[in-house]
Amino acid sequence: MTSAGLLAVRAEWGGRQFGQIAVRLQRPPVAQLFVGQIPEAVVKTIPYLYTLCAHAQRAAAQAALAAAMGEARRPVDDGELWVELLHENFWRLLLDWPTALGLPPAQSAFAAWRAARQGSQCLAETQKLIAVSVRPMAAACLMRLDETVPSSAAGGEVPGMPELAPETWLAYWQGLSPQPPALARPASPQAAFRGRLAEVEQAAEALASGAPYPVVAAGGDGWGVAQTITARGILTHAVHVDDGRVLRYRVVAPTDIHFADAAALTELLAGRQAESPEAGRQLLEQAVLALDPCLPYTLELNDA
Amino acid sequence: MCLAIPAQVVELREGDNAVVDLAGVRKEISLSLVDNVTVGDYVIVHVGYALNKLDPEEAAKTLALFAELGQIDDDPTLH
C-alpha cells in the first residue's frame, strides 16, 4: 500500500522575518502504472487513481494518447469539467481561505451546492452560491488579507485562466528543449485569491454559455502532450507510445512545479514580517494556500 | 492531483464525524459532504472530509492499483 504523498514545509523565523525555507515533496510514482499498458487501459485506469481532478486527468490522458497515436480525440463533457473546476475553487474560497484567515467557513452552503451540482439545477445553484456566499465571503477574506499583507507585498498581476502551450512542452518531452515551460505563479496571496475569484466568475459564465473546456494537445509519431486547466493551474500529460504500448508517461500538476523547490514560497514570503511565531505561522499558511498544494502537507516554523 | 485512496469507515462519531482506516492508519474525518455513510463503507478522503462513497467493487479495484503502486520503487521524476 502506498500513501497519497506528502508535502513538508520547513521555515526558519528570525523573530520578525523568515530565514531559510525548505520544501520536500514526496509523490507516489503513479505514472509508472501506465508503462507497458495499451492506451485504452491508461484511460480506463485514470479515474480510479485521482479524486479532485479526475475528469481533467482523464481528458488530458485521452488527448495526449490520441495525439501520440495520430487519432481523433474523444469529445469531453464540458459541463462536468467546468463543475469540477468550480468545486475546487469553491472549496478554497468558502472553506480553506476563511479558516486560514480566522473566519467561519461556509460549510453548509458549499455542501448544499455540492449535493446539487450533478442535477438539473446545477447552473442555478452555482450562480446562487456565487451571489449569496462566494462574493460576500471573498470580500471578507480580502479585507482580512489586506490587514495581514502590507500593500507593498500585496500587488502583482491577478492571474486569469492560464494559457496552454502543449507544443512547447512537447519539445521538452522529446529532448529538443532543455527546460519545460515555466508555470506562472502568484505574486502575492491577494493576487492568488483574486485570480481564483476571477476564475470562478469565468467558469460560471462558461458553464452558462456551454463554452468548451480548454483541452489542447500536440504530437504525433508516438509522442503526445496534452494540457488542460485545473483549479490549481495547468495540468500536463506527456506520453511516448511505441508499438501500441506506453513506453514513458509523465503527469505534471501545478503542485509538482510550485513545490519542486522552495523558490515560489521564498518569493511569496520575501520581506514579510511577523510580530510573533503565531503570526509567522499564519503568513506561512497563507503563502502555502496561495500556491495550493493538492496533497496533505505539514508546516514547521523554527526559531533561527 | 490528489490520489483517490479508499478509506474504510470503522466508526461513526457525533457531529457528523467518523473514524476511517486509510492504509492502516486511523483518523477522524468529517462526513458533512456525503450522505448515508455507514460502518464498512469506503470513502475517498481529502483534507479531513469524505468526498464521496465508493461501491465495494470500485474500492477493491482502486486498492489493488495502489497496492501495485506500492511495489514500484519511488522515482520522483515519474509521478
In short:
The complex is a heterodimer of chains A (304) and B (79). By secondary structure, chain A is an alpha+beta fold. Chain A contains ten helices and seven strands.
Structural write-up:
The complex is a heterodimer of chains A (304) and B (79). Chain A is built from ten helices and seven strands. Chain A has 304 residues and is of the alpha+beta class. Chain A has one domain: Cytochrome-c3 Hydrogenase, chain B, CATH 1.10.645.10. In chain A, a hairpin with a 2-residue loop joins strand 3 (215-220) and strand 4 (223-230). In chain A, helix 3 (78-100) runs antiparallel to helix 10 (277-291). Chain B has 79 residues and is an alpha+beta fold. Helix content of chain B is 19%, strand content 39%. In chain B, strands 3-2-1-4-5 form a five-stranded antiparallel sheet. The chains are: A alpha+beta (304), B alpha+beta (79). At the A-B interface, helix 1, helix 4 and strand 6 of A face helix 1 of B.
